[in-house]
Amino acid sequence: MNLFLRSSILSALLCCAFAQAQPAGPNPATAHPIVGTWSWTLPGKTCTETWQYRADGRRLGTSGEEVTQGDYQVPAKPTTTGFYPVTETVTQSNGKRDCSGDLHTEGDESVIRFIQFSPKQDQFIVCKAASLEACFGPLKRVQ
Fold it and tell me: d(Cα 108, Cα 81) in Å, to the nearest integer?
């Protein structure tokens, strides 16, 4: 067998083996801009909130002493005003207070937050409604 043919066969085998070993998952090029880890520190305080949104609709959060897990839903496109309504439900909580002193218990009713990304999608603000009147942030992308 000549060297070229052996190299071609070896390349094909390695390519196929590598492709089969790759885990199936979301394509980063098509992932929603919310997917990732985001962080924010309250102004004038040392308390930091970190939120991780996973592509599978799960959310992990830490805020002060609080640690929560939950589910979230977000549309693929923002509203005409540029906000994404994000519906979140806490499914697990350690029962401790967050940076604002609030408690979020398991099975709480769903909360809708309205987020708006910066043009580079490396930051977002969180608002009570689809307006800039009652917001906090920006949360900055950590990962």
Answer: 28
Where do runs of H (alpha helix) occur along the chain? 3-21
Give the integer Cα–Cα distance in Å for 92 and 8.
52
Judge whether 92 and 70 are in contact, CB under 8 Å.
yes
Is residue 61 within 8 Å of residue 49, measured between CB atoms? yes
Question: Both tokens of residue 33?
Answer: 């801009």
Which residues are CB-neighbours of 141 under 8 A, at least 6 positions away? 36, 37, 38, 121, 122, 123
DSSP string over 86-121: EEEEEEEE-----TTS----TTPPPEEEEEEE-TTS
Give first-to-last CA distance, the chain, whole Å.
48
Which band of pLDDT confidence, cut at 50, 70 and 90, is reported for residue 105? confident
Q: Which of 116, 113, 117 is nearest to 129 (CA)?
A: 113
Whether residue 54 contacts residue 36, with contact meaning beta carbons closer than 8 Å, is answered with no
User: Regarding predicted confidence, which is higher, 4 or 129?
Assistant: 129
